[in-house]
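Our collaborator T.R. sent over the components below with a one-line note: 'Predict the complex.' Nothing else. No constraints on interfaces, no templates requested, no preferences about which chain binds where. So this is a plain run: every listed entity goes in together, and whatever single assembly comes back becomes the starting point for the next discussion.
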Amino acid sequence: MMSFSDFTTILPLVVLTAWACVLLLVDLLIPRNRKGITALFSALGLALTLGLTIAQLGRQGSGFNDMVVLDGFSVFVNALLLVSGLLGVALAYGYVKRMGLERGEYYTLLLFSVAGMMLMAQAADLIVVFLALELLSIPLYILAAFARPKVESEEAGLKYFLLGAFSAGFVVYGIALVYGATGTTALSGIVAAIPSSSTLMLTIGAALILVGLGFKIAAVPFHMWTPDVYQGAPSAVTAFMAAGAKVAGFSALLRIFATAFPSLGSSMSDVLWALAALTMIVGNLIAISQSDIKRLLAYSSIAHAGYILMAFVPFGNPDVRAVSVAAGLFYLVSYAITNFGAWGVVIALEKAEGRGLALDDYAGLGRKYPALAAAMTIFMLSLIGLPPTLGLVGKFYLFRAVIAGGYVGLAVIGVLTSLISAYYYLRVVVIMYMREGEPTTTSEPYLNMTTAFAALVTVIVSLVPAPLFAWASSAVLKLF
Amino acid sequence: MNNEWLFVAFFIVIGALVPIAAISVAWLVSPKKSNPIKQSTYECGIETVGESWVQFKAQYYIFALVFLVFDVETVFLFPWAVKIGQLGLFAVVEGIIFIGILIAGLVYTWRKGMLEWS
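Returned assembly:
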């Protein structure tokens, strides 16, 4: 039996969804040339939700017949998602105006997408996972095609939609098989039913769910859509998509595998091992040959999916899974923040006609705009994993956890591919400082704020990473 | 494996055999007298006048979408209406929220001028 108290477990989500619905209608009254008001309202909604989420810290609970849960993990992920949403709005504010894409729906769709991601983090039932997956994906499909009638953007939207629908099919089929094997879709029920169920059917079901979510997080070999979609979609959308969709996809993967399928650890760990290794190698190797910054960052995002996947490999090992999942969460934070910063620099250099995206356009940035170039250098160092940045700390925790889990080979692959990645990330830095050029940038207050915020967080948190890691560690405590 | 699954196996086998049988019997007993009309591609409906790759008015699509709102609404409201007596106030509020969200969508389409055929 349900009651009103169920709503307290998902209060931030309810508030955000209601806010988005009302904003959709309020936006109709806002004149066409003043859609910035909608952006401010959407940021206000996200900030309010963030406050409510933080207020839930330390609370435990479940609602709607155990379909959703509230725990430290969901609060951590939701807070990260809401910060991502805020940064996404800040990046878009000036960008959509400059590119002539300013429509109020942009911000409403973004809010709906964040709501889906938050539901994903709280889902404790495979049906809710699917619902959340659709709720987060459908607004992203539309946002990817937002620069219509630009052909690249339409192509990105359609491609993302088709492959997204395809991958959703995998997830549904996987859910059906898991239900067939265990007779339930609730994550806690699945664990209870596992001893008496068909292992083969369960394993196939789990593998199909992994494939479906693998599309969302852009793991090799399910990454084919990523470069085209990231390149074609408006840059502000890509920044949000790269961070938000990845965080949500990983949080779902993490919760499903850690809470429902720990008994499959022995058979799935090898698969995850191979996926992680392949994703790191392929993502980093192909990124070397890119000459377009958006494609470069797309392949970098694939490569980072591989690093985060490393944290999942020991999910069946009760001794190390807590620390390794915490390392994965920490790395997600570090990737999301760095990613927004790097895209902020890309947006500052992008011109309305789609120019300013080649690596050569960054020549001379170091001399003409030292602050921007310094920020970009920080982000590139963080993506490689060099000091003094968050990326280093993230990789350190990650590799430490993987080695503790006994997967030294995987850690070696991680280190080697990081070395490879240094080549193409540092090339951006070299071009910025060592080549002559006359780049032009656009300076917008919210954009500059986002870039500066990301740069500061990347450096400062790397100097005092312990509190964040402690939070991540306490977040996963109740997960198992 | 369960014996119940044997039914599924039978179903698959018989399901595959029936069309194969039908096609091979037709192939065996039918007279084979060919002419150009028989060789042409079968299409139901009348032949198109001019290109079939014409642009459709997008309104059809919008109308179908708006229709879907109410279509789906009905599907969900039927079970809700059947059980409302037992579920009490909570279900009433839930139902109102559900309809409210759908109405928000309708108001949005209306204000965007999508309900006018122009």
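Summary for T.R.: The CA atoms of residues 37 and 43 of chain B lie 12 Å apart.
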